[in-house]
Amino acid sequence: MTQSYEVIFENNRKWVESKLSQDADFFKKLTKAQTPEYLYIGSADSRVTAEEIMGARPGEVFVHRSIANVVNTLDMNSTAVIQYAVEHLKVKHIIVCGHYHCDGVKAAMAPQDFGLLNPWLRNIRDVYRLHQTELDAISNEDKRYDRLVELNVLEQCINVTKMACVQERYILEEYPVVHGWVFDLRTGKIIDLEIDFKKVLKDIQKIYNLTESDWMMSRKK
C-alpha cells in the first residue's frame, strides 16, 4: 500500500482513540437508531463535506451527494434516499447545498463532449436554458457561474418538492421544509438562498400536485 493510503488507517486509529478518550460509550451510542432532523443533498466535491461545514456530529445529518448536487427524479439513488429520509427517518428539513467554483456546473457550461457524463450534465444545462435570459445578461463570467450555481440549487429544490412523499408529509405535518444553500469556498460561509418553500409548493401545485389519490385522502381523514 502507498503511504498516502496507509495514513487513512492511522488517522482512523487516532480518531477512535480521541472519541473514546472523550466518551467511553461513544461507539455504543453510535449503534443506536439514527434520528437526524436534516437531510443534506450536496455536491460530491471533495472540498465540501456536510458535517464539517455544518458543525454537526455523527447521527445529526443524513447525507446524499452527487455531481453538482443534482436531484434527478429518474435517479433511483437520490429518490430512494429522499423517500427513506422523509418517510422513515422523519427529517424536518431537506437542504440542497451547492457551492461556488463547482466543477460540474462549469463543465455543463462548456461546449464539450463529456461522454457518459453528458446525460447528467444535461440537467444543469436545462437549468441554464430555463434562466438563459438572466444568465446571458451577466457579462462577468465568474459571476455568471456563481448565479448558475444558485439557480441550479433552486431548481433542485423544486425537484425535491415535486416528490409525492415530500408533498404528502408536509400537508399532514408541515414538515419537511426544503431549503437552498450555497457554500462559498472563498469564505467558508454557508449562504441561505432563503427559498420560500410554501410559495414554491403553491406555485408548482397545479402541475405537480400528487396528493389527491384515494390513499392520501384516506390518510387526511
From TrEMBL:
Pfam families: Pro_CA (PF00484)
Family: Belongs to the beta-class carbonic anhydrase family.
Organism: Chryseobacterium pennae
Entry's Gene Ontology BP terms: cellular response to carbon dioxide; cellular response to oxidative stress
Gene3D superfamilies in UniProt: Carbonic anhydrase
Positions bound to Zn(2+): D45, H99, C102
Broad EC category: lyase
Any single Gene Ontology cellular-component annotation: cytoplasm
UniProt EC number: 4.2.1.1
MF terms in GO: carbonate dehydratase activity; zinc ion binding
Coiled coil region boundaries: none
Protein's UniProt name: Carbonic anhydrase 2
Cytoplasm in keyword set: no
Cofactor binding, note field: Binds 1 zinc ion per subunit.
Names of required cofactors: Zn(2+)
Top-level lineage group: Bacteria
Catalytic reactions of this protein: hydrogencarbonate + H(+) = CO2 + H2O
Keywords annotated in UniProt: Lyase, Metal-binding, Zinc
